[in-house]
Amino acid sequence: MKKIYVLDTNVLLQDPRSIFSFEDNEVVIPAVVLEEVDSKKRNMDEVGRNARQVSKFIDRLRVLGKIDKGIPLENGGHIRIELNHRSFIKLQEIFDEKTNDNRILAVALNLKLDEEKKADGRPVIIVSKDVLMRVKADAIGLQAEDFLSDRVVEYDDHVYSGFQMLYISRELLNDFYRNGELKLASLSQGHMTFYPNEFLLMKDALGGSQSALGIIDAETKTVKKCLLDKEQIWGIKSRNAQQSMGLELLLRKDIPLVTLIGKAGTGKTLLALAAGLYQTEDLGKYKKLLVARPIVPIGKDIGYLPGEKDEKLRPWMQPIYDNLEYLFNTKKPGELDAILAGMGSIQVEALTYIRGRSIPEQFIIIDEAQNLSKHEVKTILTRVGENSKIVLMGDPEQIDHPYLDEYNNGLTYVVEKFKQERVSGHVRFIKGERSSLAQLAADLL
User: Fold this and answer.
1) Domain range holding 328?
2) Of 114, 145, 176, which residue sits at a domain end?
3) How far apart are CA 6 and CA 153, in angstroms?
4) Which of 11, 178, 255, 303 sits 20 to 30 Å CA-CA off 417?
5) Could you give the percent of the chain with pLDDT greater than 70?
6) β-pair type (257-261, 424-428)
7) Is the pLDDT at 18 greater than 80, yes or no?
8) CB neighbour class for 122 (10 Å; exposed up to 12, middle 13-18, buried from 19)
9) DSSP structure string for 231-270
């Protein structure tokens, strides 16, 4: 049976193409939703861009007919702007205030009551990213759903981890140590899928202490020993298997895209900075180390900051400077700034200024990438020039962006889209190394 989907404003602002995601059903956009979209179109951010994109989509459809009567879509469905079901009478005893949310609910409820009078009446479903909107809809007898089409994965544990653990025979382990590689065909267990640059943590199937770490070579269809032969890089060495995997990817010139996911304190930023400094300053593989973060506040924004651009950015970039102070072992105030000024090859920037740039021969680190949308992360990756390497890292469980979650953010999007590509590598860090308290807080809170 075909359905009627009433869209909340946040669905359109999250994904402008959402109006094409409901197959052969009817999509209804209340007039108040257009008003809310119109109020956002002047914003110079992702929400404003999406509001303008929605406006363009609807304007293109408008020329095909009367949009208040319904316009057919290519997928077999219809879309219309609802103007005739705005009456608030059915809701005024429940919700006194005529807020925009309540007006959207009124449209959906009036449509539902009309459909119930028909012999072949269709179900009316309100679609919203707002949890309380769905709760209110359920309370008044309306069917409500979250918009899930923008999700890259359904559940957090479905996100690609970048490694697998295998229990293999002692003979295969000995062959791996002797030859430095194993054919994937000899390791396949059931219907296992192996991805390029995925790590295999191989252990003795009989319970022995022998183990080995390898990385998949998609071209030869083998798992090979890791190339990393350095115990320390800028005074930093890996403390667990996932950090060893991360360092391997960070130091490989043939893997220009690296994604690192992990909870706070797992060492993502510190390892990336150490690998970047080593390859930029010591080896000269890259001309510059560029570190950037999206400017998204945690909690209430503190408003405008005084000073020049660098002074304004300093509070946002302080986590990067904290790690640099540790790597340079600075003790005195201002010592780090003097070092960075003298080197000239380290640049700490806000992502606000990246559009339109071309960034060749640089080691690029994008911290807190979970706060980026799909469009923003595409903008960043398309800035990467020849002989550059880019590292995206963050924790999808710590998102401060109002329209993103752990399933549809830009970082998760890149991980899933690039996992089959030979130019990329990914690791999910598991164990916290900042302190026992930090690890406990990440697990319990």
Assistant:
1) 232-444
2) 145
3) 24
4) 11
5) 88
6) parallel
7) yes
8) middle
9) S-BTTB---SHHHHHHHHHHT-TT--EEEEE--TTSSHHH
- 127-162 pLDDT per residue, tens: 998 888 999 999 888 999 988 776 666 555 678 999
Do residues 111 and 94 make contact, with C-beta atoms less than 8 angstroms apart?
no
| pLDDT tens per residue across span 390-402 | 999 999 888 877 7
> Phi/psi of residue 102, each to 5°?
-70, -35
Sequence-separated (6 or more) residues with CB below 8 Å from residue 224: 180, 181, 214, 215, 216, 217
CB 340 within 8 A of CB 324: yes
Q: Of the residues 104, 120, 145, which one is the last residue of a structural domain?
A: 145
Q: How far apart are CA 414 and CA 417, in angstroms?
A: 5
Are 214 and 241 members of one domain? Answer: no
H-type helices in 329-391, by residue range? 335-343, 374-381
Strand bridging mode 199-204 / 257-261: unpaired
Q: Are residues 72 and 214 in the same domain?
A: no
pTM listed for this prediction: 0.76
In sequence order, which residues have a C-beta less than 8 Å from that of residue 403 and are 6 or more positions away?
10, 13, 14, 46, 47, 129, 373
Beta bridge partners of 199: 163, 215
Could you tell me if residue 150 is inside a domain? no
Distance from the Cα of residue 141 to its chain's centroid? 34
Q: How far apart are CA 346 and CA 358, in angstroms?
A: 17
DSSP 8-state code for residue 281: I
Tokens 């990914």 sit at which residue? 426
Long-range contacts of range 219-227, CB-CB < 8 Å, 24 or more positions apart?
Answer: 219/422, 220/181, 221/183, 221/184, 221/185, 222/181, 222/182, 222/183, 222/184, 223/176, 223/181, 223/182, 223/184, 223/187, 224/180, 224/181, 225/176, 225/180, 225/181, 227/251, 227/252
If asked whether residues 380 and 250 sit together in one domain, one would say: yes
Q: What CATH number is associated with residue 216?
A: 2.30.130
Strand pairing partners for 81?
A: 29
417, 355: one domain: yes
